[in-house]
Design brief:
The chain folds into 4 domains: about 200 residues, no CATH class; about 110 residues, Signal transduction histidine kinase, dimerisation/phosphotransfer (DHp) domain (Helix Hairpins); about 160 residues, 2-Layer Sandwich (Heat Shock Protein 90), CATH 3.30.565.10; about 120 residues, Response regulator (Rossmann fold, 3-Layer(aba) Sandwich). Helix content is about 65%, strand content about 10%. The protein contains 20 helices and 13 strands. A 5-stranded mixed sheet has the order 2-4-5-7-6, with helices on one face. Helix 2 runs antiparallel to helix 3, helix 2 runs antiparallel to helix 8 and helix 4 crosses helix 7. The termini are far apart.
């Protein structure tokens, strides 16, 4: 009857039954095994504790005997110290026997008895579970007897101590008391041996019981598992065989395979569903993943960037409109122009942050190693960050620990970017108090610690700190602003410099500490000075541009005006073309010293124009002006014949420096 019921049970219920029964039996076996191991471990701990108890008691007799001989109080103190072990064990035993046991008292007692803290909970469980078992009860009785003898021993030692400290102590009395001590010691030895014997008997009894229990559990699990497996497996073998063939075909990419349907039961329904799944699986997976990725990327980008881009853009447009007012004073025009420049720089920073993250993820961010003055870099960072701190009336403290070479070999631009991001983040979230930057050389790294007295970070949000576009929650962005890119960029840059960056500690309402580490490669002042002089010459020798002729191929009239104003200040004669085709014509009909070539233009783009000019044999430098910032775009510029490239937006210094480099 039971077998018929099992055979007629639905497939899903059979599976649940097999899994449930097996899980229950295995869990029971594991619990039994754990109980056996922990119980035997507790017995082992008791054996070890008894050894410590006995050793301490014997040592105390030795020190007491030395005290009688030498009358040196130091030996009596050592005697008292050795008795701390049996006294601690006694305190623990008394507390364990109470119905309302205080675990803290037990822990204190056993630790005083030199028992390892990890063993104490299992020792307590062993006593409270099996204290009525004859073998263990006998061991506990001997333990109690030993504690009583120790009390007598302590009282006798105290009397002996008092006798010795008398001005006219009796040597006969002292000798008599020491004989009593030796008698107590002998009695304690017998009790200790009886305790060990009783504990051994209890251990063997527990071992036998636990072994029988484990054998029973293992046999039960194995027999039940074999019965359920063979009973259920034989009935499913044929049907599942066809499904295995189908799934193997699908796994090899054959989505045209169908499973024969022999019945209308659950297995038949499964076959129908499998056929339906096979017919649509590939397309559905592709469509779903594509849609999810596109939606996630779009929502993430728009949600985090919309506010940060619109805010400076609104200021640029608003103050640009105000500048058209002819009634403005010179001071107002200068103020509005400064605001436009500052907000434009802010917008550029946001865009550069986004591009830097993309470059790092694509492993395209370039590290440019050079020798430079580390002291000068730190002074520059301090000056820049001090202005931000002054705006919020908070202190900025730079603290150097130990010796650091004035000149080091690394990427100064990226180190500066990391420090500005990390310190700027600390300033942003600090309303009062200070931001402290501690730095030193530690284990071959430049180690920076950025410590603020700001709002702190909730523990739940610390895992989001170094994820792109993340600032803990939306309230942070609303209150403090920012893109959420600074920390992640800093961490990735630090890792590119063979270091790391991360959160050291944070406390709500107290402050936060971040760390930054980069590889430390000291340089001699002579090597660094050569590099610095070369850079200085390239930066300062702008007079070489006077009377040079440069062709600017740019479709944007606004950008043509900006380029003309930048170049005019250096004495450059600038000619212009509005697309690539016009640029090719002018470049072949006129003589120029250099060409600034925009990439994205109507009629003919900069790639095609540059390639044509090189085919015609033009050898003058061509510098690409591109809004594309990825490595593959820059490589494409170089591959068609450009000598260099300048990413938009660019300032005058950046443009002039690139021109000077390519004309040298």
């Amino acid at each position: 009857m039971i077998l018929n019921w099992w055979h007629n049970l639905s497939v899903s219920k059979k599976l649940f039954s097999v899994v449930g029964v097996m899980a229950l039996l295995i869990a029971t076996e594991l619990l039994t095994l754990y109980f056996a191991m922990s119980t035997l471990s507790a017995v082992r701990a008791f054996v070890g504790g008894e050894g410590l108890w006995s050793k301490a008691q014997k040592n105390s007799v030795l020190y007491l005997q030395k005290y009688v001989t030498s009358k040196d109080e130091r030996h009596y103190r050592l005697f008292e110290g050795e008795l701390a072990v049996p006294l601690g064990d006694r305190m623990a035993r008394i507390e364990i026997e109470k119905p309302d046991m205080n675990m803290n008292v037990v822990m204190t007692g056993f630790q005083q008895g030199l028992i390892h803290p990890a063993d104490i909970p299992e020792m307590v469980k062993l006593v409270r579970r099996f204290h009525k078992v004859p073998h263990l009860a006998r061991a506990l009785e001997k333990w109690n007897q030993g504690d009583q003898l120790v009390s007598e021993y302590i009282d006798l030692a105290s009397q002996l101590h008092d006798e010795i400290r008398k001005k006219e102590s009796s040597e006969a009395q002292i000798s008599k008391m020491m004989n009593q001590v030796f008698e107590l010691d002998a009695r304690l030895t017998r009790v200790e041996n009886e305790f060990s014997f009783a504990l051994g008997e209890a251990s063997r009894w527990l071992e036998n019981i636990l072994m029988l229990t484990l054998i029973f559990a293992v046999v039960t699990v194995e027999c039940t598992g074999l019965f359920l497996t063979f009973s259920f497996g034989n009935r499913l073998k044929n049907v599942l065989g066809e499904m295995i063939v189908a799934t193997n075909a699908v796994s090899e990419g054959n989505f045209k395979y169908t499973v024969p349907v022999h019945s209308k039961d659950e297995l038949g329904q499964l076959a129908i569903s499998l056929n339906r799944m096979i017919s649509n699986l590939q397309q559905q997976i592709h469509d779903r993943e594509t849609a999810q990725q596109a939606s996630q990327a779009k929502n993430l980008f728009l949600a985090n960037m919309s506010h940060e881009i619109r805010t400076p853009l609104n200021a640029v447009l608003g103050f640009s409109e105000l500048l058209q007012d002819s009634n403005l004073t010179d001071e107002e025009r200068q103020t509005y122009g400064s605001i436009i420049r500052r907000t434009g720089n802010s917008l550029t920073t946001i865009i550069n942050d986004i591009l830097d993250v993309a470059k790092v993820e694509a492993e395209q961010l370039k590290i440019e190693m050079a020798a430079f003055s580390f002291t000068q870099l730190m002074d520059d960072v301090y000056t820049l960050m001090r202005l931000r701190c002054d705006e919020k009336s908070i202190d900025l403290i730079f603290e150097k620990n130990g010796e650091i070479s004035d000149f080091i070999f690394s990427d100064p631009v990226r180190i500066r970017q990391i420090l500005v991001n990390m310190i700027g983040n600390a300033i942003k979230f600090t309303q009062r108090g200070s931001v402290t930057v501690k730095y030193q050389v530690l284990n071959g790294y430049l180690d920076f610690r950025i410590i603020d007295t700001g709002v702190g970070i909730p523990e739940a949000q610390t895992t989001q700190l170094f994820k792109p576009f993340s600032q803990g929650d939306s309230s942070v962005r609303k209150q403090f602003g920012g893109t959420g890119l600074g920390l992640v960029i800093s961490q990735k840059l630090a890792r590119l410099l063979e270091g790391d960056a991360g959160l050291s500690e944070t406390h709500l309402g107290v402050g936060t500490e971040f760390f930054v580490r980069v590889k430390y490669i000291p340089q001699t002042p002579e090597n660094a000075k050569v590099v610095a002089d070369q850079v200085a010459k390239a930066d300062l020798d702008e007079s070489r541009l006077k009377d040079k002729k440069i062709l600017v191929v740019e479709d944007s009239l606004d950008n043509q005006i900006i380029a003309q104003l930048f170049l005019r200040k250096s004495g450059v004669f600038a000619d212009f073309a509005s697309n690539g085709l016009e640029g090719v014509t002018k470049a072949t009909e006129n003589a120029y010293d250099l060409i600034l070539m925009d990439i994205q233009m109507p009629v003919m783009d900069g790639y095609a124009a540059t390639a044509i000019l090189r085919e015609k044999g033009l050898t003058i430098p061509i510098v690409a002006l591109t809004g594309y910032a990825m490595k593959e775009d820059q490589q494409r510029c170089l591959s068609v014949g450009c000598n260099d490239f300048v990413s938009k937006p660019y300032d005058r210094a950046k443009l002039i420096k690139c021109i000077l480099k390519n004309l040298s």
